Write a sequence for this structure.
């Protein structure tokens, strides 16, 4: 659930580092990492933004819930 969206940014494909995402794609929900330089009190700081595959996360979570309910394990729900 997303309850607050503070800002929306646009990045080009060349700003997205996909090497971490490609290491083990079948077990990795990371699409890419964006390194964003910001300035805080006269100091340059790198901020990391992780671009996640939300659709895949939701699909995997749904599969776990269905599997647990199939087994009759409903103690966590």
């Amino acid at each position: 659930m997303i309850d607050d969206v503070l800002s929306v940014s646009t990045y080009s494909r060349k700003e997205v580092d996909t090497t971490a995402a490609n290491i083990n794609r079948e077990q990795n929900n990371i699409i890419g990492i964006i390194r964003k330089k910001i300035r805080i009190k006269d100091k340059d700081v790198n901020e990391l933004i992780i671009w996640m595959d939300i659709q895949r996360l939701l699909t995997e979570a749904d599969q776990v819930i269905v599997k647990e309910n199939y087994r009759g394990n409903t103690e966590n729900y």
Remarks:
- Residues 13-71 form one domain.
- Helices lie at 19-22, 54-71.
- The radius of gyration is 18 Å.
- The chain has a mean pLDDT of 80.
